[in-house]
Amino acid sequence: MVECLQDYMTIIGFLCLLMACAGLYRVYARGALRVFFLPALVLKVVAGLGYGWLYVVYYGQAGDSFNYFHDAGKVFVLARQDLPTYFRVVFWHEYAPIWDTTLMLWEEPRAFWFVKGVSLLMFVTGENYWLLACYFSVLSFWGSWVLVEALCRHFPQTRLSAVVAFLFFPSVVFFGSGLTKESFAVALLGFGTAQLLSRFSWRTLPVLLFCAWSLLQLKFYYLALWAGSSFAVALAYPIARKRQLSPLMQVLTFVSILAVGFLGASFVFDFDELVLMIALNHNTTYGHSHPDDLVHYSIYGGQGYFSLNASWESLLYNAPLALEAGLFRPYIWEASDKLKLVMSIENLGILIASLLAFLSTFLPFRPSASAPFHPSTSAPFPLLFLCGVIVFVVGLLVIIALASPNFGALVRYKVVVMGWIVYGLGVVFEKKIVSSRIETI
Predict the structure, then answer these.
(1) CA angle (26, 416, 280) in 5-degree steps
(2) What is the pLDDT of residue 225?
(3) Are residues 151 and 290 in the same domain?
(4) Is residue 219 part of a domain?
(5) How many CB atoms lie within 10 A of CB 156?
(6) What is the Cα–Cα distance from 135 to 17, expressed in whole angstroms?
(7) Are 130 and 141 in contact (CB under 8 A)?
(8) Where does 298-378 show beta strands of DSSP type E?
C-alpha cells in the first residue's frame, strides 16, 4: 500500500515538474535570450541526473547528495507516522525521536535545515531521488536564468558572457545541479542578485528576505559576503552619482563604506568564531584526505603543516595561496582521478584566460564609451558593481579554499562563484572585441 502510494506521488510529482517547466518557458522564454532557454534547461536537468549517477557509480550512493536524501527519508517516515509531530520538527525544530535517525542531525543544524526542506519536497515527489534531483536542477536553472536576464538588461553588451558563464559553463552547470546545497545556493544568489539589480519595490522585499534568511541557514558566510558587498554598492552609488566622482574616488568610497561596515558588524557578530570554524573545518578535512589531494597551508611558510592556526594572522598569511587554489587548482599534474582531470583541464583554461586578460591591460587599448563596464563619471554603477563582485568572489574563494582544502570538495563548493569568474573573464574579452570593432569603423 505504501509503495503504491509512493508511485502515485512520484507520477504526480513528475507531472508537476513538467507543468512548472512549461510555466517557466511561457513566462521567461522571450526576446533575444529565448533560443537559449530550452537547451540550458535540458542541460541542467541532465547534469543533475549525471551528478547523482556519479555518486551511484563511484561512491556507492554515499557522499553528501545521497546522505541528504537518506536523512530526509528518515525524517519523512515521521510524517507518515505522526504528521503534527513532523511539522513541529520541520518548522519549529522541536526534538522528536525519529526512527533510525541519530542525534547527529540535531548536532548539524545547517545540514538538518536542508534535510528538512528536502523532506517537504517528498510530499510531492515521493521518496524518489532522481525526481528530487530534477526539482533542484530546475530551481537552480530558474535562479540562474533570472540573473542572466537582469545582467543583460543592465549590461546588454555582456549578454554572451552572461549566457555562457551561468547557463552553459561545464562546472557551473554540473556542480550547480542535482540534490545538493550548492544548487540551492546558486538559485538563492541568482534570485537575490536579480532583485537587487531590478528597480526596488515592496514586492521584491519578500524575495530578498527569503533569500537572505535561507543563505543564513545554509551557509552564513554566503550571506555575509553577498549582503556586505551589496550594501556597499547600494550606499556608494548615490554618493558617486551625486558628486560625480572619478573612478578612483568611486573605488575608494566603496572600500571606505565596506571597511566601516565590517568594523560596525564586528561589534554585533563574533568574527573570531568564523575564524575558528574555518580552522576546525580545515583540520577535519585535512585529517580525512589523502596528502596528494590537498592544498597544504602553513602558519610560518613551511609546507605540510597539519592545521591552520585559529587566528586572523594565520588566515591572512595563507589567503594568497587560498585564492590561487580556489581559482586554478587542481592543476593537471595534481589530478588523481578522471573527474579531477576534467576539472584540471577546465582550470587550465581559466588560468590561460586569466593570463591573457592580465596581459591585455598592458596592450594598446583605447576604452570606448560603448564598451562593457566602461567607468565613466556619469555612470558609476558598472564600476561599483564590479567592485562588489570582486569582493564577493575573492572573499568566498579564500574562505572556501581555507575551510575545504580537499581538491574534490573545492571544485564543488566554488561553483557559487565560478559563474562570476567566467563572466568577468568574458567581459574583458568582449570589451577588447567591441573596442577593436569601433576603432576599425
Answers:
(1) 145
(2) 92
(3) no
(4) no
(5) 11
(6) 7
(7) no
(8) none
Angle at 117 between CA 111 and CA 119, to 5 degrees: 105
Looking at the 3D structure of the chain, how many domains does it have?
2
* pLDDT tens per residue across span 408-421: 889 899 999 999 99
pLDDT of residue 200: 66
Q: Are residues 289 and 417 in the same domain?
A: yes
Residue 427 lies in a domain: yes
More confident residue, 368 or 261: 261
329 and 185 within one domain: no
Using the predicted structure, report yes or no on whether residue 72 has a pLDDT greater than 80: yes
Q: Do 311 and 172 fall into the same domain?
A: no
Examine residue 432 and state whether it is found in any structural domain, yes or no: yes
Q: Is 422's pLDDT higher than 90?
A: yes
> What per-residue confidence (pLDDT) applies to 71?
87
- The three-state secondary structure class of 178 is coil
In a domain, 143, yes or no: yes
Q: Which residue, among 67, 66, 78, 139, has the nearest Cα to 108 in the 3D structure?
A: 67
CA distance 238 to 278: 36
Could you give the angle at the alpha carbon of 268 between the alpha carbons of 262 and 272, nearest 5°?
75
What is the pTM for the complete model shown? 0.89
Query: Which among 193, 217, 233 is the end of a domain?
Result: 193
pLDDT at 38 exceeding the cut of 50: yes
| C-alpha cell belonging to residue 102 | 541519530
Do 160 and 284 share a domain, yes or no? no
Q: Is 111 exposed, middle or buried (0-12, 13-18, 19+ CB in 10 A)?
A: middle
> In the block, which residue shows the cell 500500500?
1
Lowest mean pLDDT among 117-131, 259-273, 386-400: 259-273
- Same domain? For 186 and 118 the reply is yes
Q: Is 417 in the same domain as 338?
A: yes
Q: Using N-to-C axis directions, what is the helix angle for 129-154 and 34-59, rounded to 10°?
A: 140
Residues 426-430 have a mean pLDDT of: 81
Range of the domain at 422: 241-440
Distances (CA, A) of 105 to 74, 113, 196, 216, 387: 11, 9, 34, 18, 39
Distance CA 205, CA 191 (A): 12
Q: Are residues 288 and 427 in the same domain?
A: yes
Asked whether residue 8 carries a pLDDT value surpassing 70, the answer given is yes
